[in-house]
Each structure stands twice: as structure tokens, then as C-alpha cells.
Amino acid sequence: MARVFVYGTLKKGQPNYKHMINTAKGLAKFQGRGRTVEKYPLVIAGKYNIPYMLNIPGTGHRVAGEIYSVDDQMLQFLDEFEGCPDMYQRTLMQIEVVEWEGKGGAGEAQASAEGIMECFVYSTTTYPPEWVSLPYHDSYDSSGKHGLSYVLRESR
């Protein structure tokens, strides 16, 4: 099982969460909530209002999201879903655990002892330069005050 940190449309209550609970795509078990240890720019960009974490450590905000434990099948699905490695790149990042629900195993001990764990995160280094000038968010909600509603793939 791998740990994945999601900050956008795959979170609970967001438009693509349905994929995280679709066991035909693999297993994803919610472990808790966290935020990046380093600051990153989280922007909403493109004509479909997609959230992107730009891989520019030290710029922006500590980004909030959810930590999942996923099997190989789900990780492969997420790679395809996220257009990895062209649109997003899956990299390991330090995530501070804010609230832990995961039970048992080394992860729980690691999370409670240190409060920080490594998770795979889909961020991007392949973006138009003007995205750096977009507003930075510390957390994403498709129907947030920003007014930039995400456009589902099936509606594009």
C-alpha cells in the first residue's frame, strides 16, 4: 500500500471523490487530513477550472488535503487519471498530519510520533508561466468563494 495526499477534486465532497470509493479501480482507504510541510502555490487554472499544485517549494501556502492508503491498482488508476507524467508528476512530499483516523501499523505510530509522513502528491512542473501569477489557495473546494466551478470530464 502507498500513501497518497489529495488536495483537489478527489477529496471527500468534491466532484471526483467518486473515483476514490470505486473499488473497481482499486482500494483507497481514508487515513486522515494533513497539509504540506512546505508552502506550494495551489492555483485553479485552465478552461475547466482544474486545481493544480505547482511544484515550486517555498512559494504560496501550506496546502490542506486528505491522506489515503491506496493499493497498486488504485495508484495506477490515479496515475492515468492525473495524466502522469505529462500533466501532473507524482512525487514524494512531506505531509504534516492534522487529524489521523488510520488504524494500526507503522503509519499510525509514525503519524502520532512525528506528525509528519511522506506521501505521494500529484503536483506539476509542466504549466504555462502565467499560472504563477494566479491567486494562490491554501485549500480547494470546487464550489468555493473563488467562483471557479470545476468542469467534470464528462461535461467537456
TrEMBL record:
GO terms for biological process: modified amino acid catabolic process. The keyword Membrane does not apply. The active site is at E82. Its EC number is 4.3.2.8. Keywords: Lyase, Transferase. It catalyses: epsilon-(gamma-L-glutamyl)-L-lysine = 5-oxo-L-proline + L-lysine. GO terms for molecular function: gamma-glutamylaminecyclotransferase activity; transferase activity. CDD domains: GGCT_like (cd06661). GO terms for cellular component: cytosol. Catalyzes the formation of 5-oxo-L-proline from L-gamma-glutamyl-L-epsilon-lysine. Belongs to the gamma-glutamylcyclotransferase family. This is Gamma-glutamylaminecyclotransferase. It comes from Herpetotheres cachinnans (Laughing falcon).
